[in-house]
Amino acid sequence: MWYSIIILTILVLIYFKKKSKSKFFEQDEYALEMFREKMVILLQIKNRTTAEISNYCAAYDFFCNFTTKYDGATFVKDLHDLPGLDLDAMLHDYDCLIGANRNYKRWFIAVWNYYENQRKQGKGNRPGRLIGLSIIGLFFVPYCAIFTPKYYPLKKE
Known about the structure:
Layout: H1 2-19, H2 29-45, H3 50-65, H4 87-97, H5 104-120, H6 127-147
Helix pairs in contact: 1-6, 2-3, 3-4, 4-5, 5-6
């Protein structure tokens, strides 16, 4: 019985991983620069701290360099902050790619940050998102540790 649940969960994760794609970062350089400026202004309007804005900028810059790695919000696709871009999903994907998808502690920190960032962005207080992502992590972390490469944050020049 448990094997069936585990196999079904893994198959669902693989399905969503393959289905969830975003082409936001495949735009021309000028458009990406303009959206970056809009992102910073939006985060300032939402009273985010300088450190928080810096984290979003690091994630944004990472995906400008690795344009195909941002897959967008996998389940909740209608919470875009900018046309075609959910900033919290972007930051969560970034956290995962630089190591949260390989370590349970980092995964739960990334999930908590995602939950808190959505709350701070005015997207609601949805504990179901936190619980759902935490449960998915039980299967997703070992899958990623085996089958996906790890990326590293870009060094500032």
